[in-house]
Design brief:
Blueprint: E1 35-36, E2 75-76, H1 77-83, H2 89-97, E3 101-103, E4 106-107, E5 114-115, E6 122-124, E7 127-128, E8 136-141, E9 173-174, E10 183-189, H3 192-199, E11 207-214, H4 219-227, E12 241-248, E13 252-259, H5 266-273, E14 278-286, E15 298-301, H6 304-314
Parallel strand pairs: 10-14
Antiparallel strand pairs: 1-15, 2-5, 3-4, 3-6, 6-7, 8-10, 8-15, 9-10, 11-13, 11-14, 12-13
Length: about 325
């Protein structure tokens, strides 16, 4: 007889029924309209490929996407120059020392100079430095697409997530990775600070998944997930959180679970370790961010509240109201 302790809570978050992409609550107000992307044939580098740009654009544009300024102490001048594509950081330092750079009409030679890239007037050799806008997108990544910023296709000819975005001008990249066959929430940005905050182990940002395990998961298997799983290389995972059974049949079990690690193919390896291989995997949330309202391959610009909430979550601060 099966134990009465077995979790049977049904999640109110997006479900996997019918193999559709996650669905749930409505997108936050101010979010950009979704755009269904299709792999582009052209394009170079890690800039977004050509596509339908309806509802998507540069941060700070008419769709409400945010532009985040520096903190009160400002940003190092050479970092701003490098981010704007003027030169590498080392070359930018050489230009500063050589007296080729001015800030608000004053030539600066100190490498410790800090500026506000949104407010200060920076000239290099008399030419204005225009800082790259920070842009943020959330995508409902489909199956069969690579998390890579190397171009519209990878070295093996497989489409990348970049190919699903419109041409936006800025160089962007996915934050973290989802496996080739894993679907769901993916963030793309050119904000290195946000990317570091979301992926650094010390921040432990939660990621929630819907997982289709092979076979019926007995109470013992669920408790193993809750305690932490010993992987094939000896690594013991952190305990999974908020585990609940969404649906089960005689041959498989759908489970919702939250993890705070980003080990390589972690959930698939956890499934192998407990004797229940993962058949399907969908990420339904990163912190409080979901892909609600987005079909497979669709993306939208994030709004300022979503970005700040993610930063606050990563840094352990109260969420903005």
């Amino acid at each position: 007889m099966r134990s009465s302790k077995r979790p049977t809570t049904r999640s109110s978050s997006p479900g996997p029924k019918g193999g559709r992409s996650p669905k749930g609550s409505r997108p936050s107000k101010g979010a950009g309209k979704p755009v269904k992307g299709r792999p582009s044939k052209g394009g170079k580098g890690s800039r977004a490929g050509k596509g339908n740009a309806r509802g998507l654009g540069r941060a700070g544009g008419s769709n409400g996407a945010p532009v985040l300024g520096s903190d009160g102490s400002g940003v190092r001048l050479q970092k701003v120059m490098a981010a704007a594509g003027v030169a590498s950081r080392r070359k930018a330092e050489e230009l500063i020392v050589a007296g080729k750079v001015s800030v608000n009409g004053r030539v600066v030679r100190e490498l410790g100079t800090r500026v506000d890239p949104e407010r200060d007037r920076i000239l290099v050799g008399g030419e204005r430095v225009v800082p790259e806008r920070r842009v943020y997108y959330v995508m409902n990544k489909p199956d069969g697409v690579v998390c890579s910023a190397e171009g519209p296709v990878d070295a093996r000819g497989r489409p990348t997530v970049i190919s699903l975005l419109p041409q936006i001008g800025e160089r962007i990249y996915p934050v973290g990775r989802l496996d080739f066959h894993t679907r769901g929430v993916l963030i793309l940005t050119n904000d290195g600070d946000l990317a570091a905050a979301l992926t650094h182990p010390r921040h432990s940002v939660s990621k929630t998944y819907h997982v289709k395990f092979q076979g019926k998961l007995e109470l013992q298997a669920l408790e193993t997930l809750e305690r932490g799983v010993s992987l094939e290389d000896g690594t013991v995972t952190r305990p999974a959180e908020n585990i609940s059974v969404i649906r089960e049949t005689d041959t498989n079990t759908w489970v919702q679970m939250t993890i705070r690690q980003g080990l390589y193919r972690q959930i698939r390896r956890m499934g192998e370790a407990i004797g229940h291989p993962v058949l399907k995997l969908i990420r339904v949330a990163i912190g409080g961010l979901t892909a609600d309202g987005l079909r497979d391959g669709e993306a939208r610009a994030m709004n300022a509240t979503e970005v700040y909430d993610l930063l606050a979550t990563a840094e352990g601060e109260p969420r903005r109201r």
